[in-house]
Amino acid sequence: GSQTTSPPASTHAVPHGQTPSPCSASTDSSLPVVVHRPPSPSNTHAMATRAKRGLFQPVDHLNLSAIHSTASPIPKTYRGALHDPHWRRAMTEEFDALVTNGTWSLVPRPPRAHVVSGKWIFKHKFHSDGSLARYKARWVIRGYSQQQGIDFDETFSPIVKPATIRIVLSLAVS
Questions:
Q1: Is residue 145's pLDDT more than 50?
Q2: What is the pLDDT of residues 66-82, one digit of tens each?
Q3: Disordered: where is this region (predicted)?
């Protein structure tokens, strides 16, 4: 008669795309390939992970996409950006947003004042499909060039904690 063997309880089927080790593979081609995966000796922490449970997500190496974009290259200097209409428009939008929001205002330089410089950062923004969404230009200040006591005396960051909001609202209700 034919003899049927069942795999031991401590083994499980090999996930798709992985090869079994020769010592644990079944020699009968009609039976499923089974691999025993002992726990990793270097991973002895108590946290239950997917790998420890034998759960593996398939790796899809074929979803890589290379979309040919005719986007203007990212400029290295602001002078190079001014020659490209896309980057010039992005710089204008950033400047207009800073002025509209009242982030800063242009004032005359006080005597003996240390001027904090800034620089433009340029970046392409993409849609999830990889197509170009927009050109992004940001004006950032080099705050690391400031010295406390000379360029500024104190710092203030207006942050409201959720607990403060709840207290104020409960006082307003009562």
A1: yes
A2: 555 578 899 999 999 99
A3: 1-32
Q: What is the DSSP letter of 23?
A: T
- Residue 24 domain-assigned? no
Is there a domain that residue 137 lies in? yes
Higher per-residue confidence, 30 vs 150:
150
**Residue 29 forms part of a structural domain:** no
User: CA 118, CA 139: separation in Å to the nearest integer?
Assistant: 7
Q: Is residue 34 part of a domain?
A: no
Specify the number of domains making up the chain. 1
CA atoms of 104 and 110, how far apart (whole Å): 16
User: Residues 129-150: what's their mean pLDDT?
Assistant: 83
Residue 88's domain comprises 78-154
DSSP-assigned states of every residue in 99-125: HHTTS----PPPTTPPPPPEEEEEEEE
Task: Confirm if 13 and 34 have CB atoms less than 8 A apart.
Answer: yes
Alpha carbon distance 89, 87 (integer Å): 5
Helix-, strand-, coil-residue percentages of the chain, each rounded to 5: 25, 15, 65
b/e per residue 34-66 (b: at least 16 CB within 10 A): bbebeeeeeeeeeeeeeeeeeeeeeeeeeeeee
